[in-house]
Write a structure and sequence with these properties.
The chain is built from eleven helices and twelve strands. The protein has four domains: 67 residues; 100 residues, 2-Layer Sandwich (Beta-Lactamase); 83 residues, Helix Hairpins; 141 residues, 2-Layer Sandwich (Heat Shock Protein 90). The chain has 430 residues and is α+β, with helices and mostly antiparallel strands. The strands form three sheets. A five-stranded antiparallel β-sheet has the order 2-1-5-4-3. Strands 7-9-10-12-11 form a five-stranded mixed β-sheet, with helices on one face.
Length: 430
Amino acid sequence: MLDKFKSRELFDLFTVLVAAITLAMFSVSLRLIDRIYNFFAKFSTLPIAEFIINVGLLTLMGLLWLTYRYWREASEKAAELEKIVDSISPDVLIVVDPSRNILKCNRSIERAFGYSPDEVINQKTEILYSDRRPDPGKGIEICEALKREGFHIGLAMGKKKNGETMPLEIITGRLSAGDGAVLLLRDITERKRAEEEKSKLEAKLQQVRKMEALGTLAGGLGHELRNPLGAMKNTVYFLNMALKEPSPDIKEALGILNKEIETSEGVIKSLHDFTRPVAPARLKVDVNDIVQAAMNRVPVPEKIQVVTRLNEALPNIPGDPEQLIQAFRNFILNAFQAMPEGGRLVVKSEAPSEEQVTVSFTDRGEGMDEETLRNAFEPLFTTKAKGMGLGLALTEMLIEAHGGTIDVESEVGKGTTFTIKLPIGENKQG
């Protein structure tokens, strides 16, 4: 009975506590609601439209601030990217659309091409370089390379604003969106020059090796052939003296034999001169006298007409008369041999400047194709049935020893012009 009474007291106490807590929470809620009501009551005197406008303006100002912040961050990133692009020097970077209109470029374009960025924007790429796609197949090749690998490397001829040209290497990369491309234009003039210098050095090395081989050959031939040729020449002379009245056939045979002996001796002498060149003397010579002396040493074929146009007012030049006569004689012989059916040889001398005189030999012969023209001065290269291919090689060596150069213009079926340029002043060649 006592336990039941205690349980009843605890239950009543719990009920009273719950009721007290509930009333307390209700009282707090009323106070909170009252404060919220009082807060909004302050604005109850403003018109509804004005309240909404104020809220809208506050919202707009917040959005404008956020937009400005995002724009400033984007501008800073764009400026940083532009600095990176402009720092790609000396290469030129351009962005083009599918129609190859230039959309953007870095400032290296001013140094490389002479254009300001504003001058090339919205222009075709042809303003900077010749089209790399002269035929449709080339364009397809570039497009396929871009699709397959994402980039393409090619060569083109660049065009500067002042009209000058330069070799370019163009690296093309496809944009990720596929609606254009990025092109890196690189001036490879120095690379080309280095490659040319390398080719020249390799050619000189090859020439030295040829000279060594020819020197060995010339020495052996000179030693082995001079004695037999001398004996044959003496025999021909003895027969001419012994036979007082030889028959026409014998006389003709002895003449042919003597001529062939002289030809063979000339070949040996050419080999010797080519492999053991002698430094030219430095005498004051008249170029016109040299031309006349060379022409006097070569008989003119019946069907060939020789026309001379010599400038009598030419100044003297320093040179070796015999070497220059030999060089000019080779040009005359070469012209005659190029006109087996006859023709005309024009020999002209002039002074185009105060620094040099020129002598040209123009024939109306067979002319030379590209391969023959490219190898015309190579030792042992010849297109003739007779000869060793040393004439022009030796001639070039003699002219270069005088500090001169040789220009060649030739067209198959129309003829060839050799122009020799010799310095008027002293030179250190040879």
